[in-house]
Amino acid sequence: MEPLAYRTHPVSFTRRGGRLTERQQNAWDTLGAYVLDVPRHGPNTSVDPHYVLDTAGAFGREAPLIVEIGSGRGEALVHAAAEHPELNFLGLEVYVPGVAQTLVTMRHAQVENVRLVIVNAAEALTTMLPAGSVHELRIWFPDPWHKSKHRKRRLVTPAFAELAARVIEPAGTWRLATDWEDYAEQMHDVISHSPQFSGCEWSPRFEGRVLTRFERKGLDAGRLIRDISAVRRTP
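^ that's the sequence the OP posted. Answer follows.
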C-alpha cells in the first residue's frame, strides 16, 4: 500500500531559505556527515514513513539519546553535548543555515556526539524515531504563533503529546521552555491532562540550557521565561 501523504494538518514551522556563508559552507563540506541523510517522502522536510533511524548506527555507539526539537543555530544543543560527552544528542531542525551554523559551532567546540536531521519533528516522532528510544526530549522556545488565527500551528498539542510519549522511554523526561505566557499555560495544560505523563510542573530554569539569543530576546522584551518538565509514565 502506498503510504498516506503527510501535511494533512498545519505544520508548526515556516520553512526559511537563505544562502550559507563561506564559513558555514566550509563547515558543511567538512562536517556534513553529521547531518543524517534520511529518505524523503513528499516535501524536503518530510521523512519516508517506512524509515526508522538506527540510533546506535548513527552515533557509532550505544548511549542515552537526548533529542532537541528546533535546534536552530545549535547554541543549546552543542553546549549540552560538550558538557555531556557520554550522551548522544540529536537535533531536529528545518532551517538549513541554522544546521550549517550548528556545524560551525560543533567544530569550534570540538564535539562529535551530535547528529542533525533536517525534518519536520512531528513526522520524526511519528515514525523515524524508534518507540522508547529517547532518554530526554527538549523543546526550547518553539514558535509561539501568538496571533489567534495562527495558534492552530503551535507544536505542543494533545496529539503531539502522544507522539512525545511514543518516543520517550519510561521514566524519561520531557523539558520545555517558552517566553510566551499563554503558550506556557497551553503547554502545561496539555501535558498535565496527558495520561502518558506525570509530575508536570513549573520548573526552575533548567541549568543545562545555555542562554541563547531567543531567550535573551524574550528577557530584553520583559517577558517571563517559563520552564516545564514532566516524566513519561511507566506503562
